[in-house]
Amino acid sequence: MAEMVKLFVNGREVEVESGKNLIDAFKVIGIEIPHFCYHPALGADGNCRMCLVGIEDGRPPLVPACKTPVAPGLKVQLDTEKIKKIQHDIMEFELINHPIDCPVCDQAGECTLQDYYMSYDLQDSRMTEPVVVKGKRMDFGCGVVHDQERCVLCARCVRFTRLITKTGELGIVNRSDEARVETFPGRPLNNRYAVNVVDLCPVGAMTSRDFRFTQRAWFLTRDKGICHGCAKGCNIYIDHNREKYKDDVIYRFRPRLNEQVNGYFICDEGRFTYHAENEGRLMAARVDGKDCLGDYAAQSVRAVLGPKSLILVSPDSSLEQMAAIKALSEAVGARLSGYSEGYIKEGDGDNWLIQDDKSANRAGLSLLGIDAGKETFTRLLNSSEVLVSFDNDLFIHDTGSEFRQRLEAIKVIAVTSHDGILTKMASIAIPVASYSESSGSLVNIDGMLQHFDRAVQKNTPYFDMVELCGMLGSPVATASDAVNEIKKVIPSFANVEGGLKLTASEATNVPA
Amino acid sequence: MEVKILSAKFNIKDAHKLEVARQHGAYSRLDKLFAMEPVAVTEEVKSSGLRGRGGAGFPAGLKWSFLPKGLNKPVYLTVNSDESEPATFKDRFILVRDPHLLIEGIIICCYAIGCHDAYIYIRGEYTTQVKALQAAIDEAYSAGFLGEKVGGHDFKLDVTVHRGAGAYICGEETALLESIEGKKGQPRSKPPFPAVEGLYGCPTIINNVQTIASLPYIIENGAEAYKQYGTEKSPGTHLFGISGHVQKPGMYELPLGLPILEVIEKVAGGVLNGKKLKAIIPGGSSTPVLTPEDAKTVTLDYESMAAHKTMFGSGGIVVLDETVDIVKLVENLAQFYHHESCGQCTPCREGLGWILKIVKKILRREGTMGDIDLLVELCDNIEMKTVCVLSAACTMPVRSYLNKFRHEFEAYVNQGTSAQTDVKQG
To answer: What is the pLDDT of residue A1?
Structure first.
């Protein structure tokens, strides 16, 4: 626990954490100091002047809160007429050259300018002269589209490329109200985290080509999730919506603050993995090439499961799913493997968020004692008559014709969320819910246990994999069964309260 | 009225050359300097009352004493030679006619503050000046006045000339530091002040060319001799650039404290062609304007200027006669400051452009009385809300024109004409 400091705000004594600036310290106790340019991950720049606050008896009497650390006895004024007038004036300046095109702007509904206009301005424009004309829909690369006229020149995006990715593609060129964010000629954004500038942008100047014009922000439901793009397990928001007469569809992933995992950011690849949640899904159960009801397909699987079956677990599955599958294999006497070398892209990771291992829960395999070795898998496969893959995409990388021939010689069953080569080979295919449609727990590459809840509810829900295991004969047939089983097998999780939710490790999100 | 302290060698042929300069006393104070303790040098400058000649008039010796003690970091001196304030043309004379005076001053300052690397930041447009200065520095190096052993004494000093690229804002001391560091010239938030965290994060003293060039005289003759000139609180002499509608525009070295009207009359020969005086810009374009009535009691020193709600500034006096259209003057002024706003912080970036647009609107005879009030309000809304004082450099004079010559703005609004149409344009 950080040291506490007593100071005054609007004449009232408050206690805040030391070592923070006024914006961050007051936010914790529910007092907002408006700001555009300050961002906790990017530091204080002091250019927007929106956070100017009064300091009683202070020299100077007016300071930017972002650059002012808390100090004992400081008398901060936020509600004086002078400060309110400054906030109003700054808003007026920000808006005189702004196109005010909210009806067609993607940021509308989650725009700092809009919010602050309602809170601090609420006056008609006094601008009678033509506004400054700047560039529109500029392709900045990496799927970032820039609108210079909407920009408030807070330089968050510029600082992101300089301080965080250290690639420095963005800069502000020109001076005065002709100043604008630009890339260097012929050198667009070129880094694997570029789309974070869209989240960082407090207004609609930075938009994502992927998301723009697809949804109004206020229609989106924001649920918490964990990115399954790699072993890092970055915390995300899953923004989804069920439009009238349509199904629940994900429109974007956004980073969610977790200081212990990903901080404020996610990588672009992870961000766009949401497409795979909407597309390429296995829609209906199939037995011998014919669509059928899931229950019938499950019965067909149950009928063939036995000691000559090899059950394949996916390193993307949650701990709960792994525990249920493992229990199933034990109940029916089948063999078990977690072979999934294809999920590892050697040398692809960086030393920040992106990992070589593109699976979300490989650590879970070893914690539950599931062998993932290639040798074991090949040996077991060669002596098996049935292969049941639980969402493990064996063809994620080219595996060679010999392997393919072997699969063609046996009965292949695919229990999976996605359609693919394996489902086409399979004599029985059963669709199951993907991670955004189910809940579960993961252990990331740093050994951190994280829990996620269901975000998306499809009109016709697919089988929950744990429950399906129950239908196939597993004694672990519900989420709570699975949690009990996991706690039994993994002693270090025995004392985790409330399922496997580590509430303490999940920082509350601070949308900056 | 004129005195010759800084300008002593200005009219000597080839005084920019080391040989000639030395015949007239250049570098003759070094033996005395190095016999003194650095602290004693600072004390001497403190007691001379020398004030920063860049415009703000902050006491130079006091500024030096703000350097943190016992820090294990280099200390830098940066000489501000950006001289970008419109109507200011004083430092250029030193750079071209007596650069060795500046170099000697740099040695004195560096010895006092313990600096071994000095930078001279010179505006990009000063091509003649930079050549003259660099030639003088090269000469000083060859003669041993710069380098490993300054003048044979156990003191190392390197001087680097850094050219700007044509931005007014780089005369602001922290924007200047950013520019030297190779970044876009944008002012830093203060604190920390440069004396604590300046160039490359190290303690840095930034002084104007004229401030530094005043040092050799103080070291040679002592603080008391320097204080013989000027007033008690504004001692010494200053290079005044007098321009505009006067008979004899030019640069004159004068002691501080002289009545401004007398200087215009006697030194600059009075208003051009015997016209009536309309207004005086006292110290560069950013200083609030004086009417002839105001000017009656104004003397050329920091205190008198402040008492008349204007600023001493850079000593660039602009005399405006009765033919001047104040609204057009404000347009010109706003155009300049809008163009030169670095664009970093909101009020200045957006506000100065807005001011310019409104003034243009008034000049197009489309303005309203409300626009004039809006101009006044915008000045208040912008000023002192920004990172640096560039915005104030625009709003302070603009406000003064609006207050003192409001009728000229109203003439455009009401009659649709300039208040100057009845005066024959000179």
So the answer is: 61
Gap from B101 CA to chain A (nearest CA, Å) = 36
Do residue A112 and residue A237 come from a single domain?
no
Q: Whose structure tokens read 């407090």?
A: A202
The answer to whether residue A174 sits within a structural domain is: yes
What's the average model confidence in pLDDT over B14-42?
96
Residue B310 lies in a domain: yes
- Shared-domain flag, residues B25 and B134: yes
Q: Same domain, yes or no, for B35 and B170?
A: yes
Contact list in B for residue A129 (CB cut-off 8 A) is: 354, 357-358, 360-361
- Please provide residue B380's backbone torsions phi and psi, each rounded to the nearest 5 degrees: -65, -40
Interface test with A, best of B345, B374, B387 (most A CBs within 10 A): B345
Chain pair A-B, CB pairs under 8 angstroms: 93
Q: Does A52 contact chain B (CB < 8 Å)?
A: yes
Question: Which residue positions in chain A have pLDDT lower than 70?
Answer: 1, 398, 497-512
Please give the model's pTM, rounded to 2 decimal places: 0.94
Q: Beta-carbon neighbour count of residue B43 at 10 Å?
A: 16
Res. B420: pLDDT tops 90: no
Domain boundary among B200, B227, B254: B227
Cβ distance B343 to A128 less than 8 Å, yes or no, reads no
B174: left (phi over 0), alpha (psi -120 to 50) or beta: alpha
Take residue B258 and report the two structure tokens written for it: 């002289």
Length of chain B: 426
The interface pTM score, or ipTM, of the predicted complex is 0.93
pLDDT at A405: 87
B275: CATH: 3.10.20.600
Strand order across the beta sheet in which B277-281 lies: B250-255, B237-244, B316-321, B277-281
Is the model's pLDDT at B424 over the cut of 60? Answer: no
Q: Do the chains contact at A174 and B343, CB–CB below 8 Å? A: yes
